[in-house]
Design a protein that fits this description.
Blueprint: E1 8-12, E2 26-29, E3 35-40, H1 42-45, E4 53-58, E5 61-70, E6 81-87, E7 104-105
Antiparallel strand pairs: 1-2, 3-6, 4-5, 4-7, 5-6
């Protein structure tokens, strides 16, 4: 099976013997370009700006990045807003898709 793009297989969505239809067989991602998604509550949201520095612990060191997007609406269930962060470098050896992180966003 040839993929339409290069990347790492993140999930197999089918099993041997299944009939292939319009559904995807695999989920593929570029783990060298990871981003983190933070949840901010409404009282925190007002202090977060696009471009703000973000740091978070990662094993025995820290990693960082900057805010690239803030969702315009709240999640109905959690009442949190999604904040997307682009990483300065992708620490592939210690950060994997779906991993939880706790981060600090610098106020201006």
């Amino acid at each position: 099976v040839r993929a339409p793009l290069a990347g790492t297989v993140l999930a197999r969505l089918t099993n041997v013997g299944d009939v292939a239809g319009a559904e995807p067989l695999y989920r593929i991602g570029d783990v060298t370009a990871l981003q983190i998604e933070l949840k901010a509550f409404p009282d925190q949201r007002t202090a977060i700006r696009t471009g703000a520095r973000v740091t978070f612990p990662l094993g025995n060191r820290s990693a960082g990045g900057s805010v690239i997007a803030i969702a315009p609406e709240l999640d109905v269930q959690t009442q949190a807003v999604n904040v997307r962060v682009s990483l300065d470098e992708a620490p592939i050896e210690t950060l994997v898709p779906g991993q939880f992180v706790t981060a600090s966003v610098e106020n201006e």
